[in-house]
Amino acid sequence: MSLLIFKSILILTLFLVSLGIAAYSTYAERKVAAFLQDRIGPDRAGPYGLLQPIADGTKMFLKEEIIPMFSDKWLFILGPSLFMVTALMTSAVIPWGRSIEIGGQVYSLQVADINVGILYILGIVSLGVYGIMIGGWSSNNKFALLGAIRASSQMISYELAMGMSVITVLLISNGSLSLNSIVESQGEGKLYGFINVSGINWNVFYQPVAFIIFLTCAFAECNRTPFDLPESESELIGGYHTEYSSMKLGLYLFAEYINMFISAAVISCLFFGGYNFPGIDYLGNHLPMNIVSLISVGVLFCKIFFFIFFFMWVRWTIPRFRYDQLMRLGWYVLMPLSIINVLITGALVTYFGN
Q1: How crowded is residue 229: how many other Cβ atoms within 10 Å of its Cβ?
Q2: Contact 220, 326 (CB under 8 A)
Q3: Closest-CA residue to 300 (of 262, 263, 268)
Q4: What residue numbers bound the domain in which 119 lies?
Q5: Where are the beta strands (DSSP E) in the chain?
Q6: What is the pTM of this model?
Q7: Torsion of Cα atoms, 258 then 272 then 349 then 344, to 10°
Q8: How many folded domains does the chain comprise?
Q9: SS3 letters for 156-217?
Q10: H/E stretch holding 288
């Protein structure tokens, strides 16, 4: 099997997996909400309501599609398309597991191992702001424009603190910007220099403050409660996608769930060892290479599903911030805290070395 064929299959698989997880995240969200509120949740479409995402998707495709008369038609179509494309592109640099062997040749379970992987993710996430802003502006609706402005200012504000928290991870990972190198570094060495267990030298044990900052910013970037001010139904009707219907609205909603999936994957890779787990080297010495690779993929997805559940848990637990509280948290708390954390980490790395 040539490298091109393998990469094509991997890209198609990631595309389908991302869409599948986004679809069933809507089902999981409703089930988690029902559990926390002592309800049953979806249970009519198929056994245990498992066909509910398919029913919802079919409904989205079959609903009447409305384009406002005085909107900018082409930008109105471009907005959700751009938001969806940028959400799907971020998975390209994530290492999904250990390498596998097919026909005597070793293949990496990563679409592109570029040496600026984390910058690529931050850059693509920044482009997602344009999808929201274009959608709100092209609608020619004051409420949609207000929602787009609120969403853009929120995402831009929290991207800064998120980027600063990533710098501390780079400082303790030999300065590498490659996500694959960051994940591999967490599977090597001894935790705190003396706990000799393979695969558990995770960055969260060295940078808990950076993890909390990054996690908080991920909530804001994904427009999740308590940072769901861009939609904020009680204040701005439906936010930036007020005028959208049918599958264009579905693309916005789908992209948010894909962003949540990718955010969970990035958090797992940066702070929780990615596909590494305790004893991975032991299994690597006693089991076939491909078996260990499949286990590593399963471990990474378990971490991802935990953080997706955490996103949902928080949504149905914590009330929404006011907008002034949201901006104050980003600029007056998280930004200074992230800068102080970078300075302290830099001093410690300089003094003690890597």
Answers
A1: 24
A2: yes
A3: 268
A4: 3-352
A5: 100-102, 105-107
A6: 0.91
A7: 70
A8: 1
A9: HHHHHHHHHHHHHHHHCCCCCCCHHHHHHHCCCCCECCCECCCCCCCHHHCCHHHHHHHHHH
A10: none
Where do we find the tokens 């940066």? 270
End-to-end CA distance of the chain: 40
- Closest residue by Cα to residue 249 from 53, 79, 33: 79
Distance in angstroms (rounded) separating the CA atoms of residues 227 and 150: 11
Q: What is the DSSP letter of 207?
A: -
Distance CA 346, CA 208 (A): 15
Per-residue pLDDT of 179-210, as tens digits, reads 999 998 888 777 776 666 777 889 999 999 99
Closest alpha carbon to 251 in 59, 88, 83, 131: 83
Chain segment 50-103, per-residue pLDDT in tens: 999 999 888 888 888 888 888 888 999 898 999 999 988 998 899 998 889 888
CA distance 249 to 139: 13
CB burial string 135-173: b at 16+ within 10 A, e below: bbbbbebebbbbbbbbbbbbbebbbbbbbbbbbbbbbbb
